[in-house]
Amino acid sequence: MAEVRRCNKKEWEIYPTANITPTTKLIQGKDSFIGDFAFIHCGKLVLGARSQINAGVYVIGGGDLEMGNDCVISYHSTVITGTDQPSARYMNDARSTDERNVIRGKIVLGERVFIGANSVIAISEKHPTIKIADGVVVGSGAYIGRSITEKDIVKRPETVWREYPRRYKNG
Question: pTM for this one?
Fold first, then answer.
């Protein structure tokens, strides 16, 4: 059985079947983890304290992802930090970058953000930076292609379902 990769007696964890490409710069906060079968290929990944990337999550595209403290990206979600644009002749990794128009951006999750299972967050030429504000809850299966600035619950597709109850003094 494979060992969970740990730092300093469980300050953070990377599960055995998680795959992080060598080009990814990883900064991992205390008590954060990356779950089994996650695939990470980005420029820089910052996980805040107690944040988690659950099993089966894909972070792809070569751009950056920054997660605040206490964030969750739930099972089988996809975070696309870079993408080909249709304005180029080709949209194919087998072609050289001279023949493609690749946009790499940045996705920033505030504190206590929850991204539901099977959701997609994707940058675009119109929105190369996406910021999701503190306390936002994104429902399962949602698509986020722009910044979310309120403490709201978001369902499919990018519509505010209802205001998030403010139960906590700090949020």
Answer: 0.84
Give the number of other CB atoms < 10 A from CB of residue 67: 28
- CA 148 to chain centroid, in Å, comes to 14
User: What pairing do the DSSP bridges indicate for beta strands 120-122 and 143-144?
Assistant: parallel
| Distance (Å, whole) CA 144 – CA 77 | 11
Tokens describing residue 166:
């403010």
Burial of 98 (0-12, 13-18, 19+ CB in 10 A): exposed
Residue 1 has pLDDT above 50, yes or no: no
Reading phi first (left if > 0) and then psi (alpha if -120 to 50, else beta), residue 97 is in: alpha
Cβ pair 67, 51 in contact under 8 A = yes
Residues 110, 136: Cα–Cα separation, whole Å: 8
pLDDT digits (tens, 9 = 90+) for 20-43: 999 999 999 999 999 999 999 999
